[in-house]
From TrEMBL:
Keyword match Ion transport: yes
Name listed for the protein in its UniProt record: Polysaccharide export protein
Family: Belongs to the BexD/CtrA/VexA family.
Pfam families tied to this protein: Poly_export (PF02563), SLBB_2 (PF22461)
Entries under PANTHER family matching the protein: POLYSACCHARIDE EXPORT PROTEIN GFCE-RELATED (PTHR33619)
Record's keyword terms, sorted: Cell outer membrane, Ion transport, Lipoprotein, Membrane, Palmitate, Polysaccharide transport, Porin, Signal, Sugar transport, Transmembrane, Transmembrane beta strand, Transport
Domain Polysaccharide export protein N-terminal intervals: 44-117
């Protein structure tokens, strides 16, 4: 009796599952929104504040509104005078001037200094390495960073990597462009000419070798 009930229940579950899936329509999710970096060459780089950064905001002669603030996931911070201040995507200097304008409503001639204590930055400013890197990850961009610097941070290639078929994807003028990069030549043969400058927002894809 118990065995028959179990088999019947299994058949019932299979029929219900099939009915649910047959009733579902197949939809395509929209493509991710491209957020290009504001840096177009290695000489124009400026650090932009992002969610997760820890900011030290000093207001001269007003210690009660000064302090350390963590940037929320929505790119805002909350101070004792102003609940929501948009900070993500600004340089520390731009943010200082913006806070001065905001605080001018409450304080006379405020003078503000902003420093970053802990760096995360916006996703648009990070470099992503995926595929056959030893430690695939997103890396915070540092001024004058090269391909070699990035590969050192991700621990090099796995034994299965095809480094010379790797590609670098970069957003230029609102469009994604793809470049060939020769990581095997750089890391395994010491071919320094294969080293290239990196920019914030670059994506490196390293495929697996076909043996």
């Amino acid at each position: 009796m118990d065995i028959r009930f179990t088999e019947t229940a299994k058949v019932f579950l299979v029929l219900i599952t099939a009915a649910l899936f047959s009733g579902c329509s197949s939809n395509t999710l929209p493509t991710a929104t491209v957020q290009p970096s504001t840096t177009t060459d290695i000489n124009s780089y400026k650090y932009l504040i992002g969610a997760g950064d820890v900011l030290n905001i000093f207001v001269w002669r007003n210690p009660e509104v000064s302090g350390s603030f963590v940037v929320r996931p929505d790119g805002m911070i909350t101070t004792s005078l102003v609940e929501d201040i948009k900070v993500a995507g600004k340089t520390p200097t731009e943010l200082a001037r913006s806070i001065e304008e905001t605080l001018a409503t409450y304080l006379r001639d405020p003078i503000v200094t902003v420093t970053v204590q802990s760096f995360v930055g916006p996703f648009s400013e990070q470099i992503r390495v995926i595929g056959e890197a030893a430690q695939p990850q997103a890396i915070n961009y540092t001024q004058n960073m090269s391909l070699l610097d990035v590969m050192i941070q991700v621990g090099g290639l796995t034994e299965f990597a095809d480094g010379n078929d790797a590609v670098l994807i970069r957003v230029e003028n609102g469009k994604q462009k793809q470049y060939e990069i020769m990581i095997d030549d750089l890391l395994r043969d010491g071919e320094i000419s294969a080293n290239v400058d990196m920019l914030p927002g670059d994506i490196i894809i390293i495929p697996e070798a076909w043996f």
